[in-house]
Amino acid sequence: MAKGAKLRKEKQSVAVSGESLAQQSSSQNRRWTRGFIIAVVLIYVINKFYIPVAPMQVKVAFNTWLSLTSMGEIMVFILMALGLNIVVGYAGLLDLGYVAFWALGGYVAGWLMSGFFDQVTFKFGGNPAKGLPHGIHLNVFLVLIAGGIFTAIWGVIIGAPTLRLKSDYLALVTLGFGEIIPQFMVNGENIGGFNMTNGSKGINPVDNIKIFGFEFGPFALADKFLLYAALAGMMIFLSLRLRDGRLGRAWLAIREDELAASMMGVPLMRTKLASYAVGATAGGVGGVAFATLIGGVYAERFNFQISIIILSMVVLGGMGNVWGVMLGATLLAWINNTGLVQIGKIFNAATGMNVDFPSFNFLIFGVLLVLMMLFRREGFIPEARVRLIMHEDEFADVSNVTDQIKLEGHHHHESH
Amino acid sequence: MIKSIKIGALAAAGAIALAACSGSSGSSSLVVGTDLPLQGASADASTATNNAVALYLEQQGGKAGSYTVTIKQYDNSTAAKGAWDDAQCAKNAQDHVANAAEVAVMGTYNSGCAKIELPVLNQDPTGPMLMVSHANTNPGLTVAWDPGEPEKFYPSGVRNYARVIPNDIYQGTADAQFAFQDRKVTKCAVLNDTQTYGQGIAKAFADEFAKQGGTVVINEGWDAKQPSYTALFQKIKAAGADCVFFGGIYDNNGGQLMKDSVAVLGDNKTFFKMAPDGFSGYPDLQGMPEGEGLYMSFAGKSLNGMVKAGGNGGKFIADYKTKYGVDPASSYSIYGASAMQIIMKAIAASDGTRKGVNAALLGGSTPVCLTDAESITGVGFCIDPATGDVDKKSVTIQTMTGGAETDLQVWDIK
Predict the structure, then answer these.
(1) A88: part of which helix (H) or strand (E)?
(2) Whole-model pTM?
(3) What mean pLDDT comes out for the span A165-191?
């Protein structure tokens, strides 16, 4: 009896909150957007104007805990995690080879904004280093666009034959492509006598960014951070808008029930390919951005582990929820490049032990994922829909859940 | 209100000016960064190098001329990769420049990492900042090699890189001369592991072997992921080769390569096989019966060679053992101290600024030298200011005897 009452109560509370889900989500979006913009501007202003004149301790603290290089890296990871979120979170297609798109984007930067192809001398808005005019030197914006288009095409090429597969089989094939493309880059030094990728030596240095006559060299980290944040911001905007649009709703429909979606007239292949192409584009743009961040492209970076880390960002943050994924990407990227090392140092200093934290990276990662799956399967900030479905068994009848979703969809329509 | 803004602006301007001053005028307390992979496969060698550098600095009383020098250690590897990491190298380069007291960098261990850091250090607005490596052997860092090299690493047009060991051209060349002149082989199969180092040294070997009058019958890469190389060695056998050169590192499936080469071509005593320093220092290889009789080489002097020669090198190794209780893990660690020594010499002769330290080593037209009596390795050398390369081009030739790398002779390039 008591249990039944409790369930009823939960049902009611879900129903009550459910009524305002749409408004809630749009006001939530507004709040998060504001938060993101404020955080970015704050980081920029602090680093650009305060840090150069700050006392030594502040400088050191910032550099060890929140260095601009890792901030830039976080923005690139947000961009890529959001790209993968479209494929995995929105359309429900498990992709284990996302690193392939990062690699392709990176090499586009290597090809189009460095002295690598020294057979030619071509400059269009680019910024070749002094006295080294050889190679192709395009403006960074053109390269970003080219990277996006190039990877979108590859997304379609890879997607077309593979997306006919379902679940595990699709995951395996994407895993394969994620291995093949980086391996091709490693071996692409001599393709019929043509050096396409420079093999494991990689392509470096990539040109300094130049925008409207301002050169952002290796030390203009704050300005570069702003560029990466703008790219991440664009992806956030795109993700939010796409989700509410026709295409986004079609993706969600496929994710929930492919058969039902196709019965309702959603063209499966075209919709899936679109998700793959958009996801790939984000990966490509992220690849170009990362190449400009570290000043080069290296084939060895593009390993399977990167695909898994980006996937973890999506799962941990909350599949399908833009803000959750953003949070997941920020957290995991930070832990990876700064957090573990620094926390380890503090732990060792406090306990007098000598534990090499970074080497336990996978253990910590694994435990974290297992805990998440046990206690919060839907991620840090779950998407409303996913939360309802994940807790389906807690409701007495399924019809209630469908009501919720309908309600939510209804509100979405209203808001358009 | 306006007044307070003015005062604020003035204060800010003052602070900026002060900051600028502290960056440009030399202070008496300077920092040298060491930049090494402290995690993964190279961790032992890197720790030993940091130890050797610290020991050398301690022996100097932490002084270079009138300057007090301290060390800051940077790690360019990540645990996840177990090796140097491109993003970490990029970040380290930023950090070197951001650390106002730092005037020079000792490192890196890997040429690939140096290629990322060098252009950044080169564009330092208060520099360029000097980098001296104890282990980078890729020729492209200092001389024409791949397209655009080495100019692309020096966007400011000023050189800021030196190294205390000879580059791969010399080792490959010495190996080829030794093979042709001393071992009298004429038809060589040259293999490489398709990586930066392996390709470089294989190319140097093949070029010199042909120049000497020998024939390179096969010149190709081996795929580190292959389970067997029997077919490759059958091909080499069919081509009538009497020599094989393994250009690469042992980590890239070198064990399988050795086993299959012996199985197809015969043991190393009857069939001449040679490997560069990418194969030295591996207990696996030393313990393997198929490794016996393999000819090896090492750029510079081996640890044993230094101990045997006595002098500064032998003494320093003994001091190291006294202080740390173990022998240094590789001779690169002693070359680390050697790199530190030349940096200290440059600091002593400088005005204490980054620009000054770099100019003291590479700015003049006459090379900066250490005599045999001064040099910590016991072998004097000069740094060519035009390239940053070292002028001592001796290569140690070794053979694997009874499971140990045994010095055979020191080959000076002819």
Answers:
(1) none
(2) 0.83
(3) 88
CATH topology agreement for domains B29-166+310-383 and B169-298+395-412: yes
The reply to whether residue A295 touches residue B199, judged by beta carbons under 8 angstroms, is no
Alpha helices in A122-207 (DSSP H): 140-162, 167-187
B149 touches A at CB < 8 Å = no
Q: Nearest 5 degrees, angle CA B88-CA B94-CA B96?
A: 100
In chain B, domain spans: 29-166+310-383, 169-298+395-412
Q: In the prediction, which pLDDT does B237 show?
A: 93
How far is it, in rounded angstroms, from Cα B19 to Cα B26? Answer: 13
d(CA A331, CA A315): 12
For residue range B331-363, what is the model confidence (pLDDT) as tens digits?
889 999 999 999 999 999 999 999 999 999 999
DSSP category for residue B408: E
Query: Nearest C-alpha of chain B: how many angstroms from A63?
Result: 8
Residues of B in contact with A360 (CB under 8 A): 79
Contact partners, residue B363, CB within 8 Å, separation at least 6: B385
Higher per-residue pLDDT: A416 or A162: A162
Which amino acid is present at A343?
I
Sequence length of chain B is: 414
Mean of the pLDDT values across residues A332-357? 83
Indicate yes or no: CB of B19 within 8 angstroms of CB of A130.
no
Burial B23-43 (b: 16+ CB within 10 A, else e): eeebeeebbbbbbbbbbbebb
Can you identify the CATH homologous superfamily of domain B29-166+310-383? Response regulator (3.40.50.2300)
| Range B169-298+395-412 has CATH code 1.10.3720.10 | no
- For residue A186, the model assigns a pLDDT of 87
ipTM of the prediction greater than 0.85, yes or no: no
Q: How confident is the model at residue A133 (pLDDT cuts 50, 70, 90)?
A: confident
Mean pLDDT of the residues in chain A: 85
A214: β partners: A211
pLDDT (0 to 100) of residue A397: 54
How many other C-beta atoms lie within 10 A of the C-beta of residue B287?
A: 9
